[in-house]
Amino acid sequence: MRLIFLGPPGVGKGTQAASISLRKEINHISSGDLLRAAVDAETDTGLKAKEYIDNGLLVPDELVVKIVVGKINSAECKKGFILDGFPRNLSQAKVLDNTLKKIGEKIDKVFYFTASEETIIKRIAGRRICKSCGVDYHEMFSPPVNNNVCDKCGAELYQRKDDYPETTSMRLQVYREQTEKLIYYYKGKGKLIEINCNGEKTEIEQNILEGLH
Ligand code: AMP
Fold first, then answer.
1. Of ligand 1's atoms, which has the minimum distance to the CA of residue 87?
2. Ligand 1 center–CA 176 separation, angstroms
3. How many whole angstroms from 139 Cα to the centroid of ligand 1?
């Protein structure tokens, strides 16, 4: 099963991709996580990508495509995957089509996640991440038991720099200008399923599972 989770930043794609990938035993490929790992490891790609990420801009295609395509072609993705955050523009979508064509595969479904701008901004502003194991929390909706400390590993939580309010508006603008057109691309291919993300996490997950049948 090969899926794309498409939608604006902060809509909840990552949270849902994490639980659906566990349930369905397929790989969760988050292009944002892969890029952040490259930044932390100070690889060539990471060093070049950092400034774009910190400013809420798209990392150039040649950098992001290399890591995502590498992952898609890896043994761990043979059974399938959920792409979260990729593709983010039309040229990435075409690279993805070609990559899959070469291995005789295709995207099965594209879940398009929607929520009001108010919800999205609240979700981004409250998001906190564990410095050590990467688990996501939210100050209001899913806080840790002890303030700013990860329930799972006890490490400190942090706020992503690109989740600061001044960068959030740039990310939303980039989404509207470059990523939103993918909705029509995948709708035209008859693969798009819309998921309303204004509700509770379990209800959203249920809707995705129904969409998979
Ligand atoms: P995310 O974790 O998906 O919100 O991504 C965080 C940041 O990583 C984005 O704001 C971009 O700077 C960069 N990024 C992630 N995925 C892509 C992509 N497919 N193309 C270009 N930049 C990306």
1. 19
2. 14
3. 23
Asked whether residue 159 is assigned to any structural domain, the reply reads no
Q: Does residue 130 lie within any of the structural domains?
A: no
* Euclidean distance between CA atoms 85 and 11, whole angstroms: 11
Residue range of the domain that includes 177: 2-123+166-212
Neighbours of 38 (CB within 10 A): 22
Asked if 13 is an active-site residue, the reply is yes
Q: 146-160: string of b/e by CB count within 10 Å (b at 16+)?
A: eeeebeeeeeebeee
Among candidate residues 50, 88, 123, 128, the one labeled active-site is 88
Three-class secondary structure of residue 44 per DSSP: helix
Domain count for the chain: 1
In this structure, what CATH number is given to the domain that contains residue 34?
Answer: 3.40.50.300
Q: How far is the CA of 63 from the centre of ligand 1 (A)?
A: 11
pLDDT in single tens digits along all 213 residues of the chain = 999 999 999 999 999 999 999 999 999 999 999 999 999 999 999 999 999 999 999 999 999 999 999 999 999 999 999 999 999 999 999 999 999 999 999 999 999 999 999 999 999 999 999 999 988 899 998 999 999 999 999 999 999 999 999 999 999 999 999 999 999 999 999 999 999 999 888 999 999 999 998
* 123 carries an active-site annotation: no
- Residue among 63, 88, 177 whose CB has most ligand 1 atoms within 8 A, to mutate: 88
User: Is 127 labeled as catalytic in the residue annotation?
Assistant: yes
